[in-house]
Write a structure and sequence with these properties.
The complex is a heterodimer of chains A (about 425) and B (about 300).
Chain A: H1 2-37, E1 38-42, E2 47-51, H2 53-84, H3 90-96, H4 98-111, H5 120-145, H6 154-170, H7 175-197, H8 202-222, H9 224-227, H10 256-259, H11 266-291, H12 295-305, H13 307-312, H14 317-343, H15 353-366, H16 371-387, H17 395-409
Antiparallel strand pairs in A: 1-2
Helix pairs in contact in A: 1-2, 5-11, 5-14, 5-15, 5-16, 6-7, 6-8, 6-14, 7-14, 11-14, 12-14, 15-16
Chain B: H1 2-32, H2 39-60, H3 65-92, H4 100-122, E1 127-128, E2 136-141, E3 146-150, H5 151-173, H6 175-185, H7 187-192, H8 197-223, E4 225-226, H9 230-245, H10 250-270, H11 276-290
Antiparallel strand pairs in B: 1-4, 2-3
Classes of the chains: A mainly alpha (about 425), B mainly alpha (about 300).
Chain lengths: ~425, ~300
């Protein structure tokens, strides 16, 4: 009897799950009829339509199984989580061992190019990840600390990249001389943009920054005499190590392999670039960690939590926001000039809205204000598309879907960390 | 003068299209306070459905234009609304009540998904549509310039006016409109008073997507060329229009759309086509400096 009842309950549960998945598949099938089932093709006289019902069937089947897997995951994950230690306690786990973990990550990052298994490709990818880590840390000042939503961060990245590219190719300045100039340029643009618009509410600010990003891109594309237009700028100088170049032939034997009297290898340059961006990123990190403890950084966090209280306490919101905006932009500018120097070629194509979205998702995914979270998120955001390279044409589709799924899975970011750096009494006592 | 008049007509047409898309943004923002980044993609899907339907009708031999137009509009609105509903259900509803930025990132992800979905299923190339509604009136016959108002421009204007009127009366008079306004004011209170908030939000997405579908069909007819990436910049402009007019306000969305369409038309007509986007965003910054809540937006009073 008991067995029968149990199996009856099981059966109805199975039925319920199947019905849910079937319903989802049915809706997906309906949605997919015009776009997957039918396809317009350019005919001799105008457009013609061909049908692809086989593709539609496959899509419906994929949705059906996907839904089943999701239901199963939702049932299994919490049980799994209870056994291994709740997934939700990642954050506290990290918080407890923060300094140790940061040290470990740093040691790993320092040793990466020297590892026996590392090759050119790996170091190159790691360099890319570090560029985004740096951008994420820079944007974190604006979004995570000051709580200003900036959808046009790529504009400052572009300003930095183009400042260096122009100074480097036209006036032949070196990378290290340009770096502060590029940062200052980006910061100046940040102030220029921020001054009129920073008194706007959050989402108005978002659309203005988004518009600003587009303006910069449109100007760079169309002002051909200045920026080379869509053709971009090529043969941008590489960074040098105290004047030593990383090329096979350098004037007056001033190249790295001549100076140290070793054989020339292209890997030296890749490794050097890796260490340069590591240095820049660590400087950003150090800056952010320190400024959070200064009055300015505390004012940012206070402003994020409650603007009216800040005004009452005599903090000037415009200047405080402006400083966050300018400093965030400055780090974007640094990253931009490194990017220009690393690739040797830039064009407006590299500075589209999708880059801004990518950097913002790194910050949000990392958990808004968490430094180590940004590192994890940057690694995930850059490495996932790299791994998906085999499915080349489905890559961006999967990437978008992953963004949605991760946000649904962890709406507060991988490492939720929003507690103010300093607080009175216990940090948990906040309402 | 003649040239000015022509630019005015073009500007109003473009503005109507922006306005139709902007309503979807402004309504969603009003109710759940999020920027629905995938809305531009919804409009793009509407345009693809239009090309698909017109091609099929052409193959089936339906050549009477009014019938074809009505059929295409209906089909496009039904399917596009279904997409709007599905996007909300999949990507936004699970995030209701979590931090605002999470929904924004989810929306950006959804926008990528839809864009690449259409790219994969319909191909990357431009889709062209044979002119279906051609011809027009000569409004003003100056010696050096002839001002024309084409039939498709008339259709766009009339359809926009009719839809706006219908929409305004739905919001003002029906139970659904009342529920929407209640949700906009205070979602928690609306829930307590027995309003099905989830259903109201879903219907808001459906309505916004329906209007975006009309805009998509009209654009496919007006320009005759569409591609999978058209939703991004149109969505950006429409959102700008919504902010320009004061986000959350329906007449504001229309006004913002008109203003933006006109700025673009005049700027392209008198200055340069390349910098029309700069002009559009420039006007946004200018308006926001003097009216931080948009042209018709209500200033939000913060109470401590």
């Amino acid at each position: 009897m008991v067995d029968n009842a149990a199996s009856g309950a099981d059966l109805s549960r199975v039925w319920k799950v199947l019905r849910e998945a079937g319903l989802t598949a049915l809706i997906a099938g309906f949605l997919a009829v015009p776009l997957i089932g039918l396809r317009t093709i350019g005919g001799r006289d105008g457009m013609a339509v061909e049908s692809r019902w086989d593709m539609l069937m496959i899509a419906v089947a994929v949705v059906f199984t996907g839904r089943l897997v999701l239901i199963a995951l939702r049932r299994v994950l919490p049980r799994l989580g209870a056994g291994v230690g709740k997934i939700g306690s990642f954050g506290t786990l990290f918080a407890r061992h923060r300094s140790g973990l940061a040290g470990l990550a740093l040691a790993l990052a320092l040793a990466l190019p020297l590892m026996p298994f590392s090759d050119r490709y790996l170091v190159d990818i790691a360099t890319l990840v570090l560029i985004y880590v740096m951008l994420g840390w820079g944007l974190n000042i604006v979004v995570g600390l000051a709580g200003l939503l900036d959808l046009g961060y790529v504009a400052f990245y572009a300003v930095g990249a183009y400042s260096f590219a122009l100074l480097g190719t036209v006036y032949e300045w070196s990378f290290w001389a340009c770096l502060p100039v590029a940062g200052a340029c980006a910061a100046a643009f940040g102030i220029l943009l921020g001054y009129p618009v920073l008194r706007l509410r959050g989402d108005y600010l978002a659309i203005v920054t988004l518009g600003f990003g587009e303006i910069i891109r449109v100007v760079l594309t169309n002002w051909v005499e200045f920026s080379g237009g869509p053709n971009g700028i090529a043969s941008i100088p590489r960074p040098t190590l105290l004047g030593l170049e990383f090329s096979r032939r350098a004037p007056e034997e001033q190249s790295f392999h001549h100076f140290f009297d070793i054989d020339y290898s292209g890997d030296h340059r890749i490794t050097f670039l890796y260490y340069v961006i590591l240095l820049l990123a660590l400087l950003t990190n150090l800056f952010v960690l320190r400024i959070r403890k200064l009055p300015l950084g505390r004012a940012w966090e206070a402003l994020r939590e409650d603007e009216i209280a800040c005004r009452a306490l005599g903090i000037n919101p415009v200047n405080t926001k402006l400083s966050a905006f300018a400093l965030g932009a400055m780090f974007g500018g640094f990253a931009g000039s490194f990017f220009a120097s690393r690739s040797g070629f830039i064009s407006p194509e590299s500075f589209t809205f999708i880059e801004s979205a990518l950097i913002l998702s790194i910050v949000v995914l990392g958990g808004m204000g968490s430094q180590i979270g940004v590192v994890l998120a940057a690694a995930a955001i850059i490495l996932v598309p790299e791994f998906l390279r085999e499915f080349s044409e489905y890559r961006m589709l999967a990437f978008g879907a992953a963004m949605v799924l991760i946000m649904i899975w962890r709406p507060r970011g991988l490492l939720a960390h929003r507690a103010p750096t300093v607080s009175l009494g216990q940090s948990g006592a906040r309402p | 003068m003649a040239y000015f008049l022509q630019q005015l007509i073009n500007g109003v047409t473009l503005g109507s299209i922006y306005g139709l898309i902007a309503i979807g943004y402004t309504m969603v923002y009003g109710i759940i306070g999020m920027i629905n980044f995938a809305h531009g993609e919804i409009y793009m899907i509407g345009a693809f459905l239009a090309v698909l339907c017109f091609s099929m009708l052409g193959m089936a031999g339906v050549t009477w234009v009014p019938l074809a137009l009505v059929l295409v509009l209906l089909v496009a609105m039904v399917f596009t609304s279904a997409y709007g509903w599905a996007v909300e259900r999949v990507a936004y509803r699970p995030l209701r009540g979590s931090q605002r930025l999470a929904a924004l990132i989810s929306a950006i992800g959804m926008s990528l998904v839809l864009q690449n979905y259409v790219l994969l299923t319909q191909g990357a190339g431009l889709k062209t549509l044979q002119p279906i509604v051609s011809g027009g009136f000569v409004v003003y016959d100056a010696p050096d310039f002839v001002v024309t108002l084409s039939y498709i421009q008339i259709i766009i204007l009339v359809l926009t006016v009719v839809l706006m009127a219908a929409f305004a009366s739905v919001i003002a008079r029906t139970a659904l409109g009342r529920a929407q306004r209640a949700c906009e004011q205070d979602r928690g209170m609306a829930l307590l008073l027995g309003i099905d908030v989830d259903r109201t939000i879903s219907l808001t997405f459906v309505m916004g997507a329906g209007l975006a579908a009309v805009a998509g069909v009209m654009v496919a007819l007006y320009y005759g060329v569409i591609d999978f990436f058209m939703g991004f910049i149109a969505g950006l402009k429409a959102f700008t229009a919504a902010v320009l007019g004061g986000i959350g306000s329906l007449p504001g969305a229309m006004l913002g759309g008109m203003l933006l369409g006109m700025v673009e038309a005049f700027w392209s007509g008198y200055f340069s086509v390349e910098y029309k986007d700069v002009a559009a965003f420039g006007i946004l910054v200018l308006v926001l400096i003097f009216r931080p809540t948009g042209l018709l937006g209500q200033p939000e009073i913060e109470k401590v």
